[in-house]
Sequence to fold (235 residues):
Amino acid sequence: MSEVVQDWRDKKLGARIRAALWLRDEVGEGGTFSKQDLRAAVQGKEQVDRRMRDLRPAGWVIKNYRDKPSLQPDELYLEKIGLPIWEKEHRAAGLRQISAKTRRFVYERDGHMCRRCGVGAAEAYPDDPDSHARLTLGHVNSHKSGSAANAEDLITECARCNETVRHLTGVQMGREQVWDRVKELSRKDKLALHAWMAGDVRPITPVEQAWGMYRQLPAALRDEVAGDLRALLQG
Ligand SMILES: [Zn+2]
Fold:
């Protein structure tokens, strides 16, 4: 049996495999690269972000300047090469095999809000009121080749938090701006924020979960539920 050497330049391979091979051969673990470099190597420009995201559930770790302070805003860092998705048995690793049931369960468990920044489905971002959040599922753990993702592997994220690289045209926060707001918080709120920072997720309360579910209802049914709650509180 002969070993087939696969090359990222081979246009017959899919974009995800070519991106993985390029990262392995041209960047290597511990190397930095830019999205532009990857784009130039593997064509299909809007696809590059997606291809990198698709490597994450296969155990690949790629960090950006938000995760790793020494990086420039346009730099990415290949921390870990995950499963060799160019090999036949790993080809399907991490590809979106999420059943509708799991998807629904995760959104519901997470209260239909982004567990990273806390924005709800279709809500405007507090720092960017013209953009409205679209929710998607992100991977917190890699899952085995070809197996379906479990709810524990998944987390609800907004598209903005799920991006490997934040579009630099978006509103940029300055450190001072954030720190000024943090300082103003009560001690109780500071403690809560500190705990969220440690876990890098915002836990959701039962009231937020109920709100997220309520917001999924069509307008007429929302009115009914709001009316029922009003009556209950008055009763
Ligand atoms: Zn978010």
Remarks:
- Strands lie at 32-34, 61-63, 75-80, 124-125, 128-132, 135-139, 154-158.
- DSSP finds nine helices and seven strands in the chain.
- The chain has two domains: 15-90, 96-226.
- Residues 15-90 form one domain.
